[in-house]
Write a structure and sequence with these properties.
GO molecular function, one term: oxidoreductase activity, acting on the CH-OH group of donors, NAD or NADP as acceptor
Number of strands: 10
Largest sheet: 6 strands, parallel
CATH superfamily of the largest domain: NAD(P)-binding Rossmann-like Domain
CATH topology of the largest domain: Rossmann fold
Shape: globular
CATH architecture of the largest domain: 3-Layer(aba) Sandwich
Order of helices and strands: EHEHHEHEHEHEHEHEHHHHEHEH
InterPro entries: 6-PGluconate_DH-like_C_sf, NAD(P)-bd_dom_sf, UDP-Glc/GDP-Man, UDP-Glc/GDP-Man_DH_dimer, UDP-Glc/GDP-Man_DH_N, UDP_ManNAc/GlcNAc_DH
Protein name: UDP-glucose/GDP-mannose dehydrogenase C-terminal domain-containing protein
Helix content: 40-55%
Strand content: 5-15%
Family: Belongs to the UDP-glucose/GDP-mannose dehydrogenase family.
Number of helices: 14
Strand order of the largest sheet: 3-2-1-4-5-6
Length: 353
């Protein structure tokens, strides 16, 4: 039996996936109307597949009571926000730490507690474990997801990799079994210490952002070279199996709620342990320089006004997220240059702009 603390977009999706795999699931949240909408199956979500999965669910219930979750579950997943403000490097773990403290006050025994939200390396061993040290027989593991907003249900069904930072061998065994039953593609399951998993989680996103910045740099070089075609170049680069074709075509820079902050966070942690994060810094810096290059190219067209479409943080994103959107960044810089810019997108995105 599985429990969830935090039934937001990712928490609910994960709970539904485990329910589909045959697990009895109880999840808690702090908003009464939201909990009610899960239980009566009236919840509306822009995340594809959620409403249908909720309608079909028979082993999922939501509650406002944390104790209900702890009494129900053998393994408890925590999926609460660890946000950063724009430009900041660290994650705000206030809510996560409060949840762990609240769990400790209830003195559960022999539970496997699993943190799924992104944290800086060292959080679990230095803070999380301390907060639940009074919970007899309880382990604390790290199991972050690698998903994209707008594709969460699909990403949970067919993950490339499942990361398990196991607090105990038994916890690792349970998590491995759970994912083997809940996924459809036999993903690679990587088991390691929580400390290793904390670094690995950031490393994946940072490597992807490095590929994006590198591809855009090559694209900008090609644009400045008569006779060169950036798409031909980068498609060929991607054919080399050492590189791969994903995230290697030119376009807007990276944005969204994960990539920029994870890149900055890894850089911050590297400095903390005495390592100079030159690659993280260069990746972040070129993401800004590429926006400059895009604006320069647009201004050279000398148009009366510019139209920019599809301004969510990634192309054709079905959920309404514009955090660190690079199309919007380009639009803002055009306006700063004195140009008239028209944004074309669906009404929900326009309201956010």
């Amino acid at each position: 039996r599985a429990g969830f603390i935090g039934m937001g977009r990712l928490g609910l999706c994960t709970a539904l996936k485990f329910e589909q795999a045959g697990w009895d699931v109880c999840g808690s949240d702090v908003f009464p109307s939201y909990v009610e909408s899960i239980n009566d199956k009236s919840l509306r979500s822009k995340e594809p597949g959620v409403e249908e999965a909720l309608r079909k669910s028979t082993r999922l219930r939501a509650t406002l009571n944390l104790l209900d979750v702890l009494e129900h579950a053998d393994i408890v997943f925590i999926l609460v926000a660890t946000p950063t403000s724009a430009g900041e490097e660290a994650y705000d773990t206030t809510t996560l730490s409060r949840v762990l403290s609240d769990i400790a006050k209830l003195r559960p025994t022999n539970k496997h507690i699993v943190i799924c939200c992104t944290v800086l390396p060292g959080y679990i061993s230095n803070i999380g474990s301390y907060l639940i040290e009074s919970c007899t027989g309880c382990s604390l593991s790290y199991n972050p997801e690698f998903i994209a907003q707008g594709e969460i249900m699909k990403g949970l069904s067919e993950p490339d990799v499942v990361l398990i930072g196991e607090g105990s061998e038994e916890a690792g065994d349970i998590l491995q079994f759970l994912y083997e039953t809940a996924t459809s593609n036999e993903p690679r399951i990587c088991r390691m210490s929580p400390q290793s998993a904390e670094i690995m989680k950031l490393s994946v996103n940072c490597f992807v952002t490095t590929k994006i910045s590198f591809a855009n740099m090559i694209g900008d070089i090609a644009d400045a070279t008569p006779g060169a075609d950036k798409f031909d170049i980068l498609r060929a680069v991607g054919q080399d199996t050492r590189v791969g074709h994903r995230c290697i075509l030119p376009g807007y820079g990276f944005g969204g709620p994960c990539f920029p902050r994870d890149n900055r966070a890894l850089g911050m942690y590297a400095r903390k342990v005495g390592i100079t994060p030159s690659i993280c810094d260069a990746t972040d810096e070129y993401n800004r320089l590429h926006a400059d290059a895009m604006v320069k190219a647009l201004l050279e067209q000398k148009l009366e006004h510019y139209t920019i479409s599809d301004v969510a943080y990634k192309p054709q994103c079905p959920v309404d997220i514009i955090e660190e959107s690079q199309p919007l960044e380009v639009a803002k810089r055009l306006v700063q240059a004195g140009k008239r810019v028209v944004i074309r997108d669906r009404p929900a995105i326009i309201e956010l702009v």
